[in-house]
Specification:
The chain has a single domain, classed as Phosphoglycerate mutase-like (Rossmann fold, 3-Layer(aba) Sandwich), CATH 3.40.50.1240. The radius of gyration is 19 Å and the shape is globular. The strands form two sheets. It has a seven-stranded mixed β-sheet. The chain contains ten helices and nine strands. By secondary structure, the chain is an alpha/beta fold.
């Protein structure tokens, strides 16, 4: 695990990653956008079985099931306030006395979204079973993973690098390791996972540039940990998934809450040094209307 301070101060080359337009509608800029997409976007000339057999022939390629959490209370709370009120005051609070959005949990709508997704997975013929599961440590992603995959009898590994863009807003602040162990038993923690949240900062908001570097580092770790595994599940956030798609050269694909898109990702032997010179935004920057 790499802390934000170390990543920010010590940029280093990482492998280059890419994707292909061959298998999925969402990965092919020539295809019109569809929401929702039939059969998770798998093109008609492929079956799930033939796709997996093809990936097995390409050791540097893996099928990632990129999943955004269901609707959380932080997703609906801003609608109750003006942009200025939310950015400059309310997002700094844990809640408003009626709704808590710090490390937000799923709303009933969010739970229903994931229940529907789980049924879609179950009803999709020969949908690939992940060989490894990874999840962000925030409550909404842990709850999303449980509703989607718990019945598979597998264990997901919590990774700090899989978090949403963090800082200033309390929705991006995680609970302690002890809290997670107590309230969400059955998850594995990556080596070095700290007791307290050492990434979140009340004064600064992570830059997109840094989040992209973090996404590339996360992909590198997952590839290195899964030499023989072909199918990877990652439950994360819209910002983090946006960065993954950008890192691999995928077209932009806005992720709705509760959505899952399969994407084939390859790790190459080429390297890339990520610039980390963009400043992180302060509260004064965020508060501008």
């Amino acid at each position: 695990m790499v802390t934000a301070q170390v990543v920010f101060k010590l940029p280093r080359p990482l492998p280059e990653f890419n994707t292909t337009t061959d298998y999925f509608i969402q990965s092919d800029p020539k295809q019109p956008r569809q929401h929702p997409i039939t059969n998770f976007g798998l093109k008609d000339q492929w079956t799930w079985d033939s796709l997996i057999e093809q990936i097995k022939l390409l050791p540097s390629h893996k099928l990632f099931l990129l999943q955004r959490h269901g609707e959380g209370y932080h997703n609906i709370a801003p609608a109750n306030y003006s942009k200025h009120e939310w950015n400059c005051y309310w997002q700094l609070r844990s809640g408003n006395g009626e709704v808590e959005w710090e490390d937000a949990r799923l709303t009933p709508t969010g739970q229903a979204q994931i229940t529907s997704l789980q049924k879609q997975i179950t009803n999709t013929e020969n949908f690939p079973r992940p060989h490894a599961f990874y999840v962000s440590p925030l409550r909404r992603t842990l709850e999303t993973w449980e509703l989607t995959w718990y019945d598979q009898g597998e264990v997901a590994t919590i990774k700090e690098l899989a978090r949403e863009t963090y800082g200033i807003g309390t929705e991006s602040k995680r609970h302690s390791k002890t809290y997670i162990e107590t309230h969400y038993p059955g998850f594995a923690f990556e080596l070095g996972f700290t007791e307290s949240d050492e990434l979140w900062n009340p004064d600064f908001h992570e830059s997109e540039q840094h989040r992209n570097y973090r996404a590339a580092k996360l992909l590198q770790e997952i590839f290195n940990e899964n030499q023989e595994n072909n199918v990877i599940s990652l439950v994360a956030h819209s910002g983090l998934i946006k960065s993954i798609l950008q890192v691999i050269g995928h077209r932009k694909w806005p992720m709705y809450t509760g959505e899952l898109i399969p994407v084939v990702i390859a790790m190459t032997y080429d390297s890339k040094t990520y610039s980390l010179d963009d400043p992180w935004r302060s509260l004064k920057d965020v508060c501008k209307v």
